[in-house]
Specification:
- By secondary structure, the protein is an alpha/beta fold.
- About 50% of the residues lie in helices and about 10% in strands.
- The protein has helices spanning about 20, 45-55, 65-70, 75-85, 85-100, 115-125, 135-145, 155-170, 185-209, and strands spanning about 35-40, 60-65, 105-110, 125-135, 175-180.
- Strands 2-3-1-4-5 form a five-stranded parallel beta sheet.
- α5 packs parallel to α6.
Length: about 210
């Protein structure tokens, strides 16, 4: 996708637009106080799994893309078209940092969010990151159901997805946990995620003594 020139004034995301503030790192909190943060490519099931996971854990669910749209007063496709990807990523970084400061919740992040170094650091400090990993055929089947995917508005979306997998999967692998997001009932994925979270927290307790 051709990135538009970034405007002098990026979309308002409800926080300061100062560049230094957008790069600020959050102080770490104990594992028990961290949010559950789902990362992965578009179509991995982050929103669907996230909603069910939040219900099971008794936590609030937040889709970061929805929060970005609410703060900017524009849809994500509109932000990409009018302001460019760089402006979107800057707003995304600030919104996720703000959400992580709220305390325990389940966050479903956009596909490119975890690629940002500052966002990864903030998630590491305030969240338990879970990569929902899916194969190409599953991803393409799922993304075909929605039309609001700016990065896939090309003549060959499958090739774009393959490129994104090559580029992003090594970074997603830095997440605390990896759970396979397979075709079929999402409840089985939710169960797997919960089991992995419990094990992760138990190990954290043991390490803390």
């Amino acid at each position: 996708m051709t990135t538009e020139t970034r405007p002098e004034t990026p979309p308002d995301t409800g926080t300061t637009t100062d560049h230094d503030a957008s790069q600020a790192r959050l102080a770490p909190v104990p594992v028990a106080e961290r949010s559950i943060v789902l990362v992965g490519l578009m179509g991995a099931g982050k929103t669907t799994v996230g909603r069910r996971l939040a219900q099971r854990l008794g936590l609030a669910f937040v889709d970061t893309d929805t929060e970005i749209e609410r703060a900017a007063g524009e849809t994500i496709p509109e932000i990409f078209e009018r302001h460019g990807e760089a402006a979107f990523r800057d707003g995304e970084r600030r919104v996720i940092a703000r959400l992580l400061e709220r305390g325990p919740q389940v966050l479903a992040t956009g596909g490119g969010a975890f690629m940002d170094e500052t966002t990864r650091a903030n998630i590491a400090a305030r969240g338990i990151s879970i990569w929902l990993k899916a194969d190409l055929d599953v991803l393409m089947k799922r993304v075909g159901r929605r039309s609001n995917r700016p990065l896939l508005k090309t003549d060959n979306p499958r090739a774009v997805m393959e490129h994104l997998m090559t580029q992003r999967y090594p970074v997603y692998a830095q997440a605390d946990l990896t759970v396979e997001s397979v075709e079929g009932p999402h409840d089985s994925v939710v169960e797997d995620v919960i089991a992995r979270i419990e094990t992760f927290r138990d190990k954290a307790k043991e390490a803390a003594g």
